[in-house]
Amino acid sequence: MHTITDTLTTNLNFWNPGVITLIAYILLVLGLVGTILFLVVVLNPRRSRPEKGRPYECGVIPTGHARFRFPTPFYLVAAFFLLFDVEAVYIVTWAVSYDRHDVSALIRMTFFIVVLMAGLFWIWRKGGLEWGVKPKR
Predict the structure, then answer these.
(1) Which of 14, 105, 118, 125 could be stapled to 101 by a disulfide with Cβ–Cβ 3.0 to 4.6 Å?
(2) Kindly report the CA angle at 135 between 130 and 137, in degrees rounded to 5?
(3) Can you say whether the dihedral through the CA atoms of 119, 125, 130, 131 is positive or negative?
(4) Which whole number is the average pLDDT over 10-31?
Protein backbone atom coordinates (compact mmCIF):
# COMPACT_ATOMS: atom_id res chain seq x y z
CA MET A 1 0.00 0.00 0.00
CA HIS A 2 1.46 3.34 -1.11
CA THR A 3 1.15 6.47 0.98
CA ILE A 4 1.64 10.11 0.02
CA THR A 5 5.11 10.23 1.60
CA ASP A 6 6.17 7.17 -0.41
CA THR A 7 5.05 8.88 -3.60
CA LEU A 8 6.86 12.12 -2.71
CA THR A 9 10.12 10.38 -1.82
CA THR A 10 9.98 8.35 -5.02
CA ASN A 11 9.41 11.44 -7.19
CA LEU A 12 12.04 13.52 -5.40
CA ASN A 13 14.81 10.96 -5.68
CA PHE A 14 18.12 12.60 -6.61
CA TRP A 15 18.90 9.95 -9.23
CA ASN A 16 15.67 10.62 -11.05
CA PRO A 17 16.69 11.89 -14.53
CA GLY A 18 14.51 15.02 -14.20
CA VAL A 19 16.19 16.08 -10.94
CA ILE A 20 19.71 15.63 -12.31
CA THR A 21 18.84 17.65 -15.41
CA LEU A 22 17.27 20.41 -13.33
CA ILE A 23 20.32 20.68 -11.05
CA ALA A 24 22.67 20.71 -14.06
CA TYR A 25 20.57 23.44 -15.68
CA ILE A 26 20.58 25.59 -12.52
CA LEU A 27 24.37 25.21 -12.17
CA LEU A 28 24.93 26.12 -15.82
CA VAL A 29 22.72 29.21 -15.55
CA LEU A 30 24.42 30.38 -12.35
CA GLY A 31 27.84 29.78 -13.91
CA LEU A 32 26.89 31.73 -17.05
CA VAL A 33 25.46 34.66 -15.05
CA GLY A 34 28.55 34.72 -12.82
CA THR A 35 30.88 34.63 -15.83
CA ILE A 36 29.04 37.46 -17.57
CA LEU A 37 29.06 39.63 -14.43
CA PHE A 38 32.77 38.94 -13.90
CA LEU A 39 33.59 39.85 -17.51
CA VAL A 40 31.58 43.07 -17.28
CA VAL A 41 33.52 44.18 -14.21
CA VAL A 42 36.92 43.21 -15.66
CA LEU A 43 36.50 44.37 -19.26
CA ASN A 44 34.49 47.54 -18.67
CA PRO A 45 36.36 49.94 -16.40
CA ARG A 46 34.29 52.77 -14.98
CA ARG A 47 35.25 56.18 -16.29
CA SER A 48 33.49 59.28 -15.10
CA ARG A 49 33.10 62.01 -17.73
CA PRO A 50 30.93 65.12 -17.65
CA GLU A 51 29.29 64.03 -20.91
CA LYS A 52 27.96 60.88 -19.23
CA GLY A 53 26.21 62.90 -16.54
CA ARG A 54 24.28 65.08 -19.00
CA PRO A 55 20.68 64.04 -19.79
CA TYR A 56 20.11 62.66 -23.27
CA GLU A 57 17.25 64.28 -25.16
CA CYS A 58 17.17 62.61 -28.58
CA GLY A 59 20.57 63.99 -29.56
CA VAL A 60 19.66 67.59 -28.73
CA ILE A 61 21.71 69.34 -26.07
CA PRO A 62 19.24 70.30 -23.32
CA THR A 63 18.75 73.99 -22.61
CA GLY A 64 16.78 75.86 -19.99
CA HIS A 65 15.52 74.82 -16.62
CA ALA A 66 13.93 71.39 -16.34
CA ARG A 67 11.65 72.29 -13.42
CA PHE A 68 8.81 74.20 -15.04
CA ARG A 69 5.18 73.92 -14.02
CA PHE A 70 2.69 71.95 -16.06
CA PRO A 71 -0.69 73.65 -16.30
CA THR A 72 -2.56 70.35 -16.67
CA PRO A 73 -3.39 68.55 -13.41
CA PHE A 74 -2.16 65.09 -14.31
CA TYR A 75 -3.59 63.34 -11.25
CA LEU A 76 -7.04 64.51 -12.33
CA VAL A 77 -6.46 63.02 -15.78
CA ALA A 78 -5.61 59.73 -14.10
CA ALA A 79 -8.79 59.98 -12.03
CA PHE A 80 -10.78 60.61 -15.23
CA PHE A 81 -9.25 57.49 -16.72
CA LEU A 82 -10.28 55.45 -13.71
CA LEU A 83 -13.76 56.90 -13.68
CA PHE A 84 -14.64 56.53 -17.33
CA ASP A 85 -12.53 53.73 -18.80
CA VAL A 86 -11.80 51.08 -16.23
CA GLU A 87 -15.18 51.25 -14.53
CA ALA A 88 -16.95 51.13 -17.88
CA VAL A 89 -15.61 47.59 -18.28
CA TYR A 90 -17.32 46.53 -15.06
CA ILE A 91 -20.58 48.23 -15.92
CA VAL A 92 -20.71 46.80 -19.46
CA THR A 93 -19.98 43.25 -18.31
CA TRP A 94 -22.65 43.59 -15.63
CA ALA A 95 -25.13 44.95 -18.19
CA VAL A 96 -24.46 42.08 -20.61
CA SER A 97 -25.39 39.51 -17.96
CA TYR A 98 -28.20 41.60 -16.45
CA ASP A 99 -30.89 38.96 -16.97
CA ARG A 100 -29.06 36.52 -14.64
CA HIS A 101 -28.89 38.94 -11.69
CA ASP A 102 -31.28 39.52 -8.84
CA VAL A 103 -32.22 42.69 -6.95
CA SER A 104 -29.10 42.60 -4.75
CA ALA A 105 -26.90 42.87 -7.85
CA LEU A 106 -28.88 45.94 -8.94
CA ILE A 107 -28.37 47.51 -5.51
CA ARG A 108 -24.62 46.79 -5.61
CA MET A 109 -24.26 48.29 -9.10
CA THR A 110 -26.28 51.34 -8.03
CA PHE A 111 -23.90 51.83 -5.10
CA PHE A 112 -20.94 51.43 -7.48
CA ILE A 113 -22.30 54.11 -9.81
CA VAL A 114 -23.01 56.44 -6.86
CA VAL A 115 -19.36 56.09 -5.77
CA LEU A 116 -18.29 56.91 -9.34
CA MET A 117 -20.51 59.98 -9.35
CA ALA A 118 -18.97 61.10 -6.05
CA GLY A 119 -15.55 60.83 -7.68
CA LEU A 120 -16.76 62.83 -10.67
CA PHE A 121 -18.10 65.58 -8.40
CA TRP A 122 -14.79 65.62 -6.52
CA ILE A 123 -12.89 66.12 -9.78
CA TRP A 124 -15.35 68.82 -10.79
CA ARG A 125 -14.90 70.60 -7.45
CA LYS A 126 -11.10 70.44 -7.76
CA GLY A 127 -11.27 72.09 -11.20
CA GLY A 128 -10.48 69.06 -13.30
CA LEU A 129 -13.08 69.98 -15.91
CA GLU A 130 -11.51 73.39 -16.57
CA TRP A 131 -8.74 72.95 -19.12
CA GLY A 132 -7.99 76.59 -19.79
CA VAL A 133 -5.42 78.79 -18.09
CA LYS A 134 -6.35 79.24 -14.46
CA PRO A 135 -6.31 82.79 -13.08
CA LYS A 136 -3.85 83.49 -10.29
CA ARG A 137 -5.41 83.91 -6.89
Answers:
(1) 105
(2) 120
(3) negative
(4) 81
